[in-house]
Design brief:
Strand order of the largest sheet of chain A: 2-3-1-4
Helix content of chain A: over 70%
Distance between the termini of chain A: 110 Å
Oligomer: homodimer
Structural class of chain A: mainly alpha
Number of strands of chain A: 4
Shape of chain A: globular
Chain lengths: 581, 581
């Protein structure tokens, strides 16, 4: 009796502690949902007020039509003209057919490289002139410059030939930008199925002119669909196969395994400092470095999926990187790595909560280190932009001072998934290892200050979507909540606190219902504008005298940069001048 | 050596037989997909040509707007008028606000019952008059008729009071039918989000006037959403709990279990004829009788989900009945019944193919009997319409000869799921027990002849959807194919024919890709008409002199039957006449 009494007391108090955890989960979920709702509403209102206060923009009056049926007797341009003249006689303004400019683009790259070579040689000559050895190499370099100059002017002629109307007529892609008189007319055109055949005349809202991704205009319905499928398969394979380095990293965190693999290291591994570095810092550093390559790869893969704008590509790549991170960083670490064990977890859905409950708390210390190594370092290196800094230091000697400096833009699919993943860590470890929270708080404060500074002083936006990326953030937070509920469910089941475990079941259902409500209440605002807002905005413009000028600009707003006239030869002529004088 | 050689030879030949099965699965899938594609295309073209050849119909020019925001200063009618006058000034014609008519409807039912009673009493009296006992009961019945007549006229006054404009003004529902000048204008209105708040002014295409389901006009966004969720939960629970009678049926098929439960039956159960009936016929008969109740129950549940048309209700109920049948007839029979064992199968997705491969072939004889008992009998009873025949035989003595005879319409959600389920049986058992095929063929031939006859001579369509139900058929066939692939996968894995098993994996993927292609190519045609067709059709009408008259009719096309004037008292007055003469 004397022995059991403290045990039961201890068990009772432990049970009570578990109930505290239970209520913490409920309260946290409610609080986060409240914040999410508030934020969704706030950003939706911001998006609307941004639209109301914006000047007329070309992309609001434009749609992109793809899969235009080709016929032998008419050109694409003619069939676009006749189709929209027939069905939108009062609102159709004009159109621009998109051309295949791959050839011109490769010629332009060649020309740019030649131009760079010529400027470098020229600089070299000048330096030599200063050093006084006029005659030894002058002739050689001069000959080279002449040769390159000839090549350049040849390429330039070639480009002009390709840019001429006659040859462009044969390079019509089956896609066109179509311009309308009003925002409402453009919106009705892309909301409705145009043709009897739903795979032809597919219309979508046009992106901003500067946002258009010109290089990859996949045209036909089938080709786009197939390329999309191929890219999705490739992305999935990449996400799954990436686990191999993660496994190696996981091996490094286990000292004993390391000693077995490399017996000669035993003497070094007994030094406390070394073991601390290896177990604490090195694994996440390696992981982090290999993860650096992921966003560009995902961006590259997504760009082949047939999207027409940079914003769509980055938004889709952002989603891919989030899933990649959840799978390869969170789940792979939690279930310590092997692909087979991960798959077996996924294929046995009944036991996922219990397995998570066993595995997730065990990795708390790893993720605390991860927040410090990956989070803190990434955000501070963001302040100094170390990689671009090093890059510019290395390339500066080889670049000419006339090179234009491009203001960089923030790659969404690199930074947003990282911040969201730390949110996921915070939510899932909130009631398992609250020690992670101060580290995360420090990260988030740092990130807030630093990104605020970067947005104001460093980056310039490449395009403006009006908050279209917010639903991604919302969805990721909802996923984090559901993951947290599954872990809680598993833990209460493991600790044999079955009432808590069964009272945990309504929570994911309620969260999903909340998400469904938000999807219905807010998501449509992020997809398209309503009749009400469009017509109000159109009426405001009706009496604006500047609209006539706007329509003139509208028609020439969408121009493939490969079709713009280019200036290298005149520049090189300038470069020749001092040589001849 | 002599012993092993025939064994290996036998094994080889068995392996070859399995490969025959393998190729049969591939060929059948390809053939069915080809047929499905052909049929989808054919029906899409039929739908389009039906649209092109149709006269102007009110529902083509009308949208239904729900969740109209209510304000204290304006009536719903005023706000609809001002909203559409503002945003669709050139195409808006008029609108009809929907009224809450529950009270009137219940009064009308009372009036109808009273009217029936009066006519019956009247008939009774006449018969008595003929029999000569004029004076014994005359006064009593006459008093009753008088009493009922007074009540009826009271109710009638009450109904007229409720039907008057003044009292209807307070009963405005937050929904309205809005009429437009052209089909295209109506289509743009329901394709686009109307209001800044996506949960207000929700527009959808209007159903045909005769197709409108007036009783249940759930109004607000939240109420409809909640009722939808509740109905979905109720349907799921109903589908799951229905298994109890199925378990009993399964118990009956097992003679030994029956003898243990009812020892006194042992003597009867030894008679061969009785055992044959019990094992072969009785189980599926009981199952079939209890299944008869399912379509009406599903129809009733679906009607509370907030649909506005009979066609939507029947189409949604049809889907529910299909899932119900697959779960409760196919899966429950295959995994012999218990709810827990079924759930354990679903929650262990890795082993579903193997479990199916073990269980499905074992039930082949049950399903052959099922085709005969359920299929053949249902289709032949359809010819005689036995239940309505019995019903009319029983009720005839109590009904008056003046009762209007309503031409029946085919309840889609009763008959379509049954035919589709036999399709599923045919596809899944095609390579397991081809013996089922002649029985199915007989069923399908019978069904073709009988339903053709019924459509031409018996049923009258209650509404016309233009083939909108076809995607349901297509999806069910695709599901059947995937189920068949899973069974084949399991069987080849069980028989240790691993190359066949792994070469089976691409087939479901290809089938799903085919389905995805069909969704993109054909499904949009079944959801809405394209700009091209709408505008062409509108232009045809522009010069039609009958259009002025059509617009007049359009405005009064949507009228709640509860608000129509009604005629009972004059009829009863007629009934009184001969009594007074």
């Amino acid at each position: 009796m004397l022995l059991t009494s403290p045990t039961t007391h201890w068990m009772c108090s432990q049970y009570q502690m578990l109930w505290v955890h239970f209520f913490a989960v409920y309260i946290l979920t409610g609080f986060i949902c409240l914040l999410l709702h508030h934020e969704y509403k706030y950003i939706a209102l911001k998006r609307l007020s941004y639209f109301y206060s914006s000047d007329p923009r070309p992309h609001q009056f434009t749609i992109l039509v793809r899969s235009i049926p080709s016929s032998s007797s008419y050109s694409i341009s003619d069939s676009v003209e006749s189709f929209f003249r027939e069905f939108y006689p009062s609102t159709y303004v004009s159109h621009v057919v998109i051309r295949r400019t791959n050839k011109i683009r490769s010629l332009l790259i060649k020309a740019k490289n030649l131009y760079k070579k010529i400027t470098q040689l020229r600089k070299h000559n000048r330096q030599k002139n200063k050093q006084g050895d006029y005659f030894r190499l002058f002739g050689q370099d001069d000959g080279l410059i002449d040769q390159y100059g000839k090549k350049l002017s040849e390429i330039e002629q070639n480009v002009r030939l390709h840019q001429s109307e006659n040859s462009l007529a044969t390079e019509e892609a089956r896609a066109a930008f179509v311009f309308f008189k009003s925002r409402y007319a453009a919106a009705t055109a892309f909301h409705m199925q145009q043709s009897v055949n739903p795979t032809q005349w597919i219309a979508e809202p046009a992106p901003e002119p500067r946002d258009v991704y010109w290089p990859f205009f996949s045209e036909s319905f089938m080709r786009r669909w197939i390329s999309k499928l191929v890219v999705l398969v490739a992305t999935t394979l990449f996400t799954l196969l990436f686990l191999i380095p993660v496994v190696i990293v996981q091996g490094l965190t286990n000292l004993k395994q390391l000693e077995v693999l490399f017996p000669f290291l035993t003497s070094i591994l007994t030094i406390k400092f070394v073991t601390q570095i290896i177990t604490g810092y090195l694994p996440s550093l390696i992981l982090q470095l290999s993860l650096k390559a992921v966003p560009p790869i995902m961006g590259f893969l997504t760009s082949m999926q047939g999207y027409i704008s940079h914003s769509d590509i980055e938004s889709s790549a952002c989603n891919k990187v989030i899933w990649f991170t959840v799978w390869n960083v969170f789940l792979a670490t939690v279930f310590s790595g092997s692909f087979i064990s991960l798959l077996s977890v996924i294929l046995d859905p009944k036991h996922i909560p219990e397995r998570l409950a066993v595995a997730v708390p065990a990795q708390a210390s790893f993720f605390i280190t991860y927040v410090v190594t990956s989070g803190w370092t990434s955000v501070t290196s963001e302040l100094f932009r170390i990689i671009p800094l090093l890059g510019s230091l290395i390339t500066r000697p080889f670049s000419s001072p006339d090179d234009e400096f491009e203001v960089p833009s923030l790659p969404f699919h690199r930074d947003v998934p990282r911040v969201l993943f730390f949110g996921l860590l915070g939510i899932t470890y909130f009631f398992l290892a609250p020690l992670i929270l101060p580290f995360l708080l420090a990260y988030l404060c740092l990130a807030y200050i630093i990104y605020r500074n970067q947005f104001i002083n460093v980056y310039a936006p490449k395009y403006e979507t009006g908050g279209k990326l917010w639903p991604t953030v919302h969805n990721t937070m909802i996923f984090s909540l559901i993951l947290m509920h599954m872990i809680a469910l598993g833990i209460f089941a493991l600790k044999k606190l079955s009432p808590a475990s069964s009272w945990m079941l309504p929570l994911p259902v309620l969260t999903l219902l909340f998400n469904e409500y938000c999807r219905k209440r807010f998501l449509p605002i992020f997809i398209a504008y309503s009749t009400e807002s469009l017509i109000k905005k159109d009426r405001e413009d009706q009496n604006d005298p500047r609209m006539a000028e706007f329509y003139k600009k509208l028609v020439i707003a969408y121009k493939d940069p490969a079709l713009l006239p280019f200036q290298y030869t005149s520049n090189t002529d300038d470069l020749f001048d001092p040589l001849l004088s």
